[in-house]
Amino acid sequence: MALEIAPSGQACGARVTGVDLKQPLDPQTIAEIRAAWLDHHVLAFPDQFLSDDDLERFTIAMGGFGHDPFFAPIPGRSNIAAIRREADEQSPLFAENWHSDWSFQLFPPAGTCLNAVEIPPIGGDTLFANQHLAWDALSADQQARYADLIAIHSARLAYAPDGSYGAKDKGRSMDIRPSDEALATQTHPLVPAHPETGRRGFYSTLGYIIGIEGMAQDSAIALLLELQQWQGDARFIYTHKWEPGMLLLWDNRSVLHCATGGYEGHRRELHRTTISAFTG
Ligand code: SIN
Question: Does domain 4-275 have CATH number 3.55.40.20?
């Protein structure tokens, strides 16, 4: 079977067919998928209908599991979390703000896999914003403003006991486990070179980024707010439409992502793994 890669025609993303992810993959196919992942940043594999075993095997083939804090894994698995919303759930949507998964870690995950378990008939798109394009579209003067900044990341606004998924978050069907560990901070360059392609792009955004090293907090937040508007500009976006049986793979080092609603009255469940940082 030859891999077929059809670009989305949007700012990133491609649909990949000609591969059966229910089978173990040979090294050449893994290399081709990895190359497409680096080129397109988001890959959608339709009609796969993967089991949790298949999802784990694919994640291992792509680089192995990342470490997922603040979530209880699904029963019987150590590395799969459920992104779930019941049909009648009233809690605020999970992951509705732009982010790059676990960017507050020392070695954040290179990628994330989301496997469709139950897809609503309408809504529930996942949006991606290509951060290489967001960087490239700036003038040299604008780039100079951001080029050498060091961002301070933390999970505190989301996962600390007083964060948005903390004690005040009621009625959520997802098994989120807030903790004081979320108070820790970690720095990363605001515009790193991608460790595999060398291409620069903004890494993460306001939310997991809570400040800028050496900058007064009010100035840092003002800068990050302005930058967040830019990072999520329509011209950088790929709107991913889910289909039953689809697996999605993205590169956290190239894109931001966020969830969307619009499926009230319908259940939605996806199983998620993260792919550990590429260590060469
Ligand atoms: C996530 O950010 O992990 C979830 C995205 C989605 O639910 O579409």
Answer: no
